[in-house]
Amino acid sequence: MQGRLEDGVVHLPGDARQRFHDSRGYGKPTGGNDLDVAPVEAAHLLSRGDIDGVDGMGLRELLARTGTTLDFVVYKDLRDRGFYLSPAREEWPGVDDADGADFLVYPRGKGPWDGVVEYRMRVVGERESIPVSSLGEIVEQSSAARRTSSGEVVLAIVDEDGDLTYFDTEGYEPAGSAIEDLPSGLDAELLSDRALLWDGVDHLYRQGFYGQRLYGRNADSGPLQLSLLEAAYLARRDALDITESDVVACGRDVEGDRFDRRLAVYTALRETGTVPKSGFKFGSDFRVYTDFETVSNLSHSEFLVRVVTPDHTFVPRDLSLDVRLAGGVRKRMVFALTDAKGEIDWLSVSRLTP
Prior knowledge:
The protein is α+β, with helices and mostly antiparallel strands. Helix content is 31%, strand content 25%. It is elongated.
């Protein structure tokens, strides 16, 4: 069987519909027994020997002409894993919303005729950039999709060796069990990059996990050193006898307007009942505890947070590093998208094995 390439679609004649769509979920029926398939689907059929060519082209020529090599790598991998999938093209079977995704992947045992989507898949090369704005649109669509039980969004990243890594992306809502019980007017001293607290140390440290003891984490007495973020947050709530504006000015001197963004995220985390602490050891802005009562009963932190601007652009290599590090220490990787003046969008990214 020879296919015909026209306007980005490969037309297959004869009994193509029965052979490829009705039994195996390929393409879009056009009436009668003919079938339209996307170039990547035609490439897969060529690789299997199910069709003889497309306008006389074999697999090599078709991939070169249509530029579908990365798509083919992902498509074949998912087919080999037992999934049916459709190119995310308008009016294609099973495709209600084609924006932002390259493939719709159906649950094993189901196809485009069942109306259920397992993943919305986007194909990315290792050297491509991923703007947060485009990813955010996908996440928003994914959230809507979940409400209608039509699937999640996955990044399929193809590295220079042709190996695949899948990342699940989804919106996230931090929530914890910590209860705020703050004193007022505690004696604190603002330094160049932190604050020292001399009164009320035990209460703030043990009940709220604020700061670190100056004499070491195992010390039972002595002053408490607070990060500038902690000091600004506590000053805003009149827990310290220093002003928030002084702390914020100090923070801006240390790290510029990034301090404002990190303070917005720190504040939001505290207000949701979670306990954020420095994430420096994990290469992030914060490590965050969700199940917290006192420091003496401290459990492991649940997720890591990196603060980025709404116009941030992900580099796949850096994204992989963040997610792998978080997974290696059994934590979720969360990105906080904020300009410090608006709402914070929380984006969770994790490794996925389809």
